Amino acid sequence: MPHPQVLRDMALFVEVAKRRSFSQAALVLGMPVSSLSRRITVFETAIGLRLLDRTTRRLTLTSYGEAYFAQATRLVEEAQRAYDDIMAEAKGPSGLLKIAVPADRGVQEHLSTIISDFASGNEHVRLQLGVGHGPVDLMEDRHDLALTVETPRETSLIVRKVAELANGVFAAPSYLEDWGRPMSPQDLTDHNVLVAGQPTNWSFVRRGETASVAVSGQIGCNAPSLMRTFALAGHGLFAANLSAIRADVASGALEQVIPDWTLQPTPVYIVTTSRLLPAKVRSFIDFATRRLSLLSDAAEAPVREAAG
Question: Which protein family is named in the record (predicted)?
Fold first, then answer.
């Protein structure tokens, strides 16, 4: 049986190797950089192999370090999962759960309710949310998981598609009074459309029929919340998630146009760095997947998994 210190040093090495940085690993571990560096040196001396190459500018794994990192990561994750499972059996999932959420207002509308309900049913889990405005970087931002509307470029991440949110085209009654009501996607070429770029192609589907149209307008904007503000002021048509502006439609502030044509839906993905997840993460993923899958017919099988 390995000495407990060996397991602790193994976990320290995995954190350093994962982040390729002593300072970042020390921050996550809550220990001084000097102490962490000393423990890794003692560990290397004990096994008689150099696992890390250190320079003033960068830290890299040796060939021995690469091979050991793959094995040690699995062992550390399995040990952590076993510990979490025992704790979960005793008092349910617990600990800090850090979740990256997208800036998309429609997705946030759904997630706020889901996260609130999860928190109510899991009193020992503390939740910290970070709104992302760019590509997912779970390592750098130290999040346990991310909910995103874009497929991450990093192929080592585990990506699961859990929903597709419907989108439509909306405008204020004042705009429609001035510009008229479009009856088909092609009519949008004669309208002032709020888009991120000039022009932008919108693709529509209706009972197997497809249509693509280039739209443009006076105001370009890549922030959905600002687009909504401009649309409410009568400056043009805009595309939005149906749930995000449900209250505006119910109040009459916005109206949906060409409702029989559907825009490309917004996919929602759950992203993690590993298949071996602590109880708090697994519990949230199961809960969120069940709730989000009710919104669409999206398949729950992983879209892409890391090799190995």
Answer: Belongs to the LysR transcriptional regulatory family.
